[in-house]
Write a structure and sequence with these properties.
6 copies of one chain form a homohexamer.
Chain A (H helix, E strand, L loop, with lengths): L3 H15 L13 H15 L14 H31 L7 H17 L1 H18 L6 H7 L1 H17 L5 H13 L2 E2 L4 E2 L4 E2 L6 E2 L4 E2 L4 E2 L4 E3 L15 E2 L4 E2 L4 E3 L4 E2 L4 E2 L4 E2 L8 E2 L13
Parallel strand pairs in A: 1-4, 2-5, 3-6, 4-7, 5-8, 6-9, 7-10, 8-11, 9-12, 10-13, 12-14
Helix pairs in contact in A: 2-3, 2-8, 3-4, 5-7, 7-8
Chain lengths: ~300, ~300, ~300, ~300, ~300, ~300
């Protein structure tokens, strides 16, 4: 195609000028594809036999688990090391790169992460039960595991949360976006979420970075737990609400503000807009009192 | 990595304790990956030549159709058999497994399913026309087929509906979640939907299990057709609304309750919240009367 | 499976009757899979080194860029040629197909497209900065590139817009649906969007065909920029709103109508429903005046 | 890389000059990759369940066989059509291309080919028995099917032979080279080979175009059945030997010439060089008479 | 394609009649593809870092080794179990299948196999040195590992030999045929081969089932170590020669017979045909005495 | 599997002891898989349109050629750099690694290599004509290109030869082994081969490192051009024969020795063993004079 050589030259020139490129040789970033594969592997380790990887039977369970843990640990260590090194450069752009120390930190992190897997499975079992109990349409636990996007979102959140808590940059947000893309549920890895959590349908749910959620909370599609202030300089303050135990929030409700607390046992109706605290055991709804809140399939 | 052996042992111990595993050898479940492949194949059979599988011409149409029907039948039979066997175990956990009978039931179901394909194509043609007619931005039928997520959602719903109707567990919900993940449109396979159905944009639409929808109905993004009651013991009642023929429901509207009927020819405005019946040919909107309902691109 | 031969014959008969098939030999359509691959390639060319294709270093940057441009140009030319030929048939169904001319038009279009890539990268750099500045939770530019779905949506929109502007059918809409499926953000390729644009979270955003958006505009999840009229015969009029510079629109707001103008510097609160123009520097919100608009994680 | 543009231009210039290119658009040739896939499919049809394709059980045997025959027929028809069209051009380079007729001829050929598959399976069963009987090291029929290259070579030969006999160009030779590459056994598709044929080890065996071989013949590695004359103008004469029934030829033996006949029941020792006929029931060997011919593992 | 249905029916009928099929459900056989993958994995474990699997560094060596051993053990156990069960059926066709015991036997075999890997690596290191020393054209050990087919053949032989020795049917022969197909070197897994073994070029080499080879033996291409007798009933006797230590056999030589012993330190010239024993330190050649044996590149 | 942990530890210990591993981080070696891909790419560049890569037409020939040259150059440069660095370490094991210089050398080598491609295509065209002319069974040039292993072997040899000549280690030998594995033809990259070269059938052909072959030479299967001496210390001498123009060598012939010259126009019969020079225009054969040499299919 005539003229293509010149176009290529201009594109290369534009790379040289703005530096908006990420050459592998210098300061590599974690790989989306690899994080995706790690999430698949961890999902298999959390709920063995329900996914699409190698067939599983009682006899090969030990062999396949050892293989998966070793593989996931190896892949995770590589990605965590890149993230840790990125964090070091971000804080200290001109510093020498203590690469050896990043590797050691990554190894430590990954080991701690895997030590927590049995506990994570206990949390997950509670989430599965909450979903089964919370949705009249659910016919079996297996149906929940195989077809509830809310379960996938909370599982990935609990994995991502570990890395956020340990201040690993990039990876937790990459994990949360991977599951956001699949489920339409956007949970920031900074959010703290208690046990027996259930999101039904889920498309459009947004849960912000400093949200705190208690136990036995249930959300429907389109719920926003957001911030009132969006100023960059307030990034380190608590900007998102606190949801206490046993709260249900129906579809499309919006709850904003770091000081906003939804008291335990409350029910927040669909499409409600809330920017200040609600006392425990309240029922908040839009429109006339004879409308009972809630929606379900 | 030192310590990994011990971690693996703890993980295996956690598998032993909670039993949250699905070993292939015992009571296998249908495979998400396989259901996904079957949906791709059925989409090709419903609209031959528009997808990404083998190139199609008039001369090889017969060969390729025979091949696809045989392959899809084989794969579907295997997954349906697993689902039927799962259903038998669910109802009768200690019973002996009449595996031969599950296979025969699966074969019968699959044959009936394929017998209905020509009729399904007639329904689909009406849906395509409804989309073309209903969206001023649509320039051609081909554009509708190639780029309207609402069409993909209704096609998969009509496929999943067959298996729901015949009481096959798991598969219909797995199908509806696959297309929910791709389109953001969540239609429970239990919903009954009439001809010439059109969903525009679609992200966030939720249609519950016992919803009944007439002909020539049009929905926009974010519409919820949900339940008022979410008690598990009412799971067998009609919990979701009835939408009669020729109704249009604009974006973000929420219609709840098993006794709620939207009368034929009505227009429901955006963001409206409805929990009781609306007479035929009504127009319901939020805000001042001079606001004309509707939104489109 | 007995009876399958008859079913296949009926299916073939149904193909013969309704003609809802697309045989490759006659009037081929662009391929979704190929458009998908082209978008991946163009994303790599726009932000080299951040994606998953071949590893990149400073030494091989020239070789890999030349290779990618040539490959993308070749694939794009093939798909554009099919689209142009489809457009010709659509306007003139019985005309002879001037295939040579379609190929020439495709070559010209593709060359022009690639000439514009350096400029597109400048726009994209502004969008990245807008996202970083606009979200307190964003810790680095790299985080924005690796995990913000809004950035992916605006990048693909700027690519698709070129083909829409040049009246290539099908391809721009196929591109916008591919990214809609991944992000839940549905931007019609006809929309005009200024520099430094930012969509946060994004699920459920709909931006209509004749929308015009200025610079430094920020949207949150669930915002609709839609039409009041959905009559097919008004398809050629401006049906969607105009958003001037420096406007922020919070989650769930709906703004409708081709004559509706949101004046520069205005703030539109969450869940607000607007169908008429708003003067510059206004603040519009639902509920009591002490509620400050906005939500964030 | 500086200078690459110029190199590319020179390469394109060299393509223009010598014409040693095969553009798909004009006169396409059969595809090696496709022929390879067809051979795999036909091998599965000939010996169902021994290969690596979809798992097979008694219940899905009918579905999978119908699917495979349809797929193989479709792929084979496409490649045969290209070959037939190539043959037409070769004989009549300036003629108009009667493409319709090539398609019809291909369809007829493919149908005849599949009609012969049951008979081919009967031949193959005899070959398997001959191998089991002929090799003391063979422990079971299954071992022969899974690990004897000679069986693979004769199976592919019997397939390729059909197309050679029907004067389809290119495809039979492509088939014989695919199996030559895998087994080191080079049988020209023109060779006529009787029932119960066995080649042990096989590496280096060459069987020429006009060879005729009877029943119950056994060959070892490195045997050549070749021509004395290699003049192009004698290409249409019988140039290779005739091997009558019940002959055994040991490793490294060379038998040349179209008039050379090895009489029935003869044994030809290793490394023997023969260019004239041998009467029935002869034993021919190199060296002293006390050496008994033969070698085996 | 008209008539295809009838052809499919005839093919199915032919399957029913001759039973030459292997349905997965009944008595499954080891998979060629799986054995192939296991050989690749074992090659990586034997010479880590030289192959094409995951990149290897000192830090991940432990993780990747544990992962590979677990994966290879799992895959191998499955294939060995199928082979053992096949062997049981072969000896006792009407017997009940003690499947549990086959699994236990497979587990034991696989554990023993892996216990022997360090010793196998010591043998392999000697073979590499023998190749480097034995070929003047070899420039480095790395060249030997990366490009000597003889090394690959002896490695696979040493692996296959273990299973042969332990009387596992099918698998050892499948392994030897996989490497025969790649290298043209056909070593029966029953052959006993000492340390520091080297085959140069290798195409056409055949080493029979009961061959015994000492240490420091060197073979060239086309050498046959075969049997004089090919009667099935003598299958359990030693039928192939014994090659003592420090023997070199040049290309194309044929040595036959179970009682034939090539005495230590002998040199056998190219194309020589030997059917009786040769005393130690002999030189055997064809033709005049002034011809020095040997050939090399 | 109990005991596996201990086995893994022993294997790791064995790695530590013998150092027979190749960790990527230190001194990486060229990759077989990558060299394989490069050969496929170069084969496409040498004979565009005959292979299995992207479909080719006259309109996209320029785009696809530019893409391929850039891709092949990039991949080749990476592998050549690793090889050059390996060569530097081999000669100077303790030296500092001048990595920059290896990269520069690789770039220069690759550019020179591509500059020679048009000339290589001229050589190849002669080889194709020689094959067509030399085999009475060849029906067309296309048949030669699609199904003659001898052509593939000489093409790869001419590519590998370039790198041998420029003293790049490992890569040329890896290339020659790749094609040896596919064709059974083993040509050392050091061999010098003139124009219009043809090998028929080819299995078992060995051509040594210091062989010199003139123009219009034809070989059959099993021919060895080898060395008399195999002492490591004579590795730098000419050890293999010289074959002058217009010589034909029939199957199984062996010609040995660096001083051995086969005079122009000679014919060497099958299975002949030659260790001294033959004058021009000689005919050498085994056995009685009435036997005419040659074999063919």
């Amino acid at each position: 195609m005539p003229g293509l050589d010149k176009i290529i030259e201009e594109l290369l020139e534009s790379y040289r000028q703005d530096g908006l490129i990420n050459p592998a040789g210098e300061a590599n970033l974690p790989s989306k594809k690899s994080i995706n594969g790690i999430l698949r592997e961890l999902t298999e380790l959390a709920m063995p036999g329900f996914g699409e990887m190698d067939p599983l039977d009682h006899d090969n369970l030990a062999l396949i688990t050892a293989e998966r843990v070793n593989r996931a640990a190896r892949n995770l260590e590589r990605e965590v090391e890149k993230s840790v090194a990125f964090g070091v450069r971000l804080e200290n752009p001109r510093g020498t790169k203590p690469l050896r120390r990043c590797r050691a930190a990554a190894e430590l992190l990954v080991r701690d992460f895997f030590s927590g897997l049995p506990e994570l499975r206990r949390m997950l079992a509670l989430d599965i039960k909450a979903a089964f109990k919370g949705d009249p349409a659910a016919k079996s636990m297996e149906e929940v595991i195989l077809s509830y996007p809310g379960l996938e979102a909370i599982l990935v959140h609990r994995l991502a949360r570990f890395f956020w808590h340990r201040k690993v940059p990039l990876i937790p947000r990459m994990m949360s976006e991977i599951v956001h893309s699949k489920t339409g549920i956007d949970i920031h890895p900074g959010a703290e979420i208690g046990g027996s959590f259930f999101i039904d349908h889920g498309t459009g749910v947004v849960i912000g970075e400093t949200t705190v959620i208690g136990s036995n909370v249930k959300l429907y599609q389109g719920v926003t737990l957001g911030a009132l202030s969006v100023k960059k300089e307030e990034a380190n303050r608590k900007r998102h609400p606190t949801i206490e135990d046993d709260v249900t929030i129906y579809s499309g409700a919006t709850i904003l503000g770091g000081a906003t607390v939804i008291g335990r046992g409350s029910i927040i109706g669909g499409n409600v807009w809330i920017t200040s605290s609600i006392p425990p055991n309240s029922t908040v709804y839009v429109g006339s009192a004879d409308q009972i809140m809630g929606q379900r399939h």
